Amino acid sequence: MSDHTMYEYVHETRKAALGIVEKSQELCAGFARQYASKKYSRIWLVASGTSNNACITAKYFMEKTLGIPCVLVNSYNFAHYESVFYPETDLMVAVTQEGESTNTIDAIERANSMGMDNFVVTEYLDNTCTQIAKGKVTIDCDREFMGPKTKGYTCTVLTLYIMALEAAKAAGKLSEEEYSSIKARMHKTVDNLDNVIAASEKWFEKNKADLLPCEKCYVIGYGPNWGTAVEGALKSLETVRYAFFSFEMEEFLHGPLASIKPDVYTIIVAPPSYGYERANGLFKVMFEQHPHVYSIGTQKGFSSSHILEAPFINDEDFSTLEYCVPLQLFAYLLYTAKGIDLNVRNYPRTNGALPTKAKPLQR
Fold first, then answer.
1. How would you classify the pairing of strands 42-47 and 117-122?
2. Phi, psi (5° rounding) for residue 112?
3. Diameter of the chain by CA atoms?
4. Average pLDDT in the 138-143 region?
């Protein structure tokens, strides 16, 4: 395990993300040219783990900006189970932060075997995936030497956003004015991340006594921030190592709500977008009946330390870049407060028996 901490990487996110926005044309030049040169009808977003969660989050903006469907599928299923492809008009985008995921390698090789155009989106350009993919886009945030990714997740989502933005401009789908406006909104959101970090740390400290016993938690989201909830739960699963689960809000109401017991915590990710009124209603009825209900985002009609009212920009498209940060810090602050050592693995022999990386990464 690296000597670096999740906390350090979260605090590096703003600087890295601003650099990505400012260098978006340079980072995405090859992808934009390729996209504009051919009429694609579908994009496959292929990844595993945190990278897959980034794809869940980025899908909606990519579809909205490019005007074609983006199909989400994990790397293993793309490589071995998916069967309906149109290689002449499909574009496969494989996302892998370290570039050594065995399943993603297999997925790229399958795309190559069909003659399907493909790009790999990765932090590090000298890895197995970049050697076999037809094209590559850098997640320009430097290496993150921790298993639970934070800065890397946020910057992966942002990189997928700028890929769609630059490709849409190159293909004539956006005017110069529209392009500049979207990019300015991105910049404004990521420039605000340090303010969100500061507010999130204070929120955790205020609620630390109640949060410390947390061993069962549901993280609820909607729209693009369903991906935020999925990634937030994964961060705590990887670090706190107790039962954290994520649900899309409406799916939560269709069954999982019945499993809420006195020792089950709930965190609702509640940006003021479509779905907020339902989230506000859910918070209201749960908060009145249960002591362990929290909200990331303002809840109309309530004032409580359980509600994180950070100075969010709340951009319609880019709130995902802000709302993931409190969940990342929650995972870090909770596992460190519990004294959990990430160097101690619960099942240390699993990786040797079922490897997920193609080769040891250089630390």
1. unpaired
2. -60, -40
3. 57
4. 93
Average pLDDT, the chain: 94
The pTM for the full model equals 0.94
Tell me if 201 sits within 8 A of 227, measured CB to CB: no
Task: Give the residue among 154, 338, 325 at the shortest CA–CA distance from 239.
Answer: 338
235: number of CA atoms within 13 Å, CB side? 31
Give residue limits of the domains in the chain: 6-190, 194-337
The span from the CA of 283 to the CA of 255, in Å, is 17
What pLDDT was estimated at residue 4? 82
Residue 209 CB burial class (10 angstroms; 0-12, 13-18, ≥19) = exposed
Written as six digits, the tokens of 86 are 């149109």
Looking at domain 6-190, which of 3.40.50.300, 3.40.50.10490, 3.40.50.261, 3.30.300.30 is its CATH number?
3.40.50.10490
Q: How far apart are CA 181 and CA 30, in angstroms?
A: 23
- Exposure string of 190-203, with b = 16+ CB inside 10 Å and e = fewer, is bebbeebbebbbeb
Taking the C-alpha atoms of residue 156 and residue 172, their distance in angstroms, rounded to an integer, is 24
Please, how many CA atoms are within 13 Å of residue 7, restricted to the half-sphere of its CB?
10
Residue 235 binned pLDDT confidence (cut-offs 50, 70, 90): very high
CA–CA distance, 283 with 310 (Å, rounded to integer): 17
Spatial neighbors of 142 by CB under 8 A, at least 6 apart, are 12, 16, 123
Q: Parallel, antiparallel, or unpaired: how do β-strands 42-47 and 70-74 relate?
A: parallel
